Amino acid sequence: MKIVVIGGTGLIGSKLVNKLREQGQEAVAAAPNTGVNTLTGNGLAEVLKGASVVVDVSNSPSWDDAAVLNFFETSTRNLLTSEAAAGVKHHVALSVVGTDRLSESGYFRAKIAQERLIKESSIPYTIVHATQFFEFLKGLADISMVGDKVHLPHVLFQPMAADDVASGVARIAVGPPVNGIVEIAGPEQFRLDDLVRRRLAALKDPREVIADPKALYSGAKISEGTLLPGKNARLGETTFETWLTQSAGTIPSAKSPAA
Ligand SMILES: NC(=O)c1ccc[n+]([C@@H]2O[C@H](COP(=O)([O-])OP(=O)(O)OC[C@H]3O[C@@H](n4cnc5c(N)ncnc54)[C@H](OP(=O)(O)O)[C@@H]3O)[C@@H](O)[C@H]2O)c1
Asked: Which of helix, strand or coil describes residue 54?
């Protein structure tokens, strides 16, 4: 089966392409540096020829409110139009657990817009909502700076390894469209400020992390359950401790605009 992975050179995309190929699928990585640009439409018609499934794990290079909204709206429109023309049977997109509860954030308004376009299109789809990646913990610190300190609320979250995200998305990509949302998450819950503090300590990053009930998450006010998945979430296996020790120091970080 030909499966085109939009953003196939990124953190999740590159893992996903490898996993799909290991399963014998014809996975094609599509990104600007492979000649496919979803913002301009360049290369889209060519890469989608003969594709049964498209998995969109791209991300905007800028998280500025207007730029990120333009990225997800324009890319998703271009993608869905080209998919309809190519006869694609399943559109899979990676989004974030709690997206609909985070509309105070410019980034999440863009993800909401992306999801709306997918739901309104004629292509059968599955939207995968993943929790925060362990690889994103440093990026989370970078976007949560107040002065020279990291300010984060002491709320629960259930983060997961990028490898488990890619496995979860790979499974969904070869299955039937659910025309709805599937949640995937990590095996353990933590407090947001605690885990970012542990990650920075492991990186020997000297920044202090303050538990601040007024601190925003990506620009949005959040409460105890905002970032938590529902009870039907499919859980990855990798614990934080295993991830930290297995990959000691060699883990790529999820990109954040401040990184
Ligand atoms: N960070 C988290 O904790 C988290 C949690 C849940 C869900 N997610 C979602 O996961 C998704 C993937 O995140 P990630 O960290 O794997 O992203 P990433 O590493 O930043 O990769 C982004 C990918 O998008 C590609 N891309 C950028 N502009 C493009 C364009 N105009 N046309 C086609 N491709 C383009 C990039 O290609 P180049 O490298 O060539 O620029 C790259 O392959 C995002 O949609 C995000 O919302 C993230």
From this structure: strand
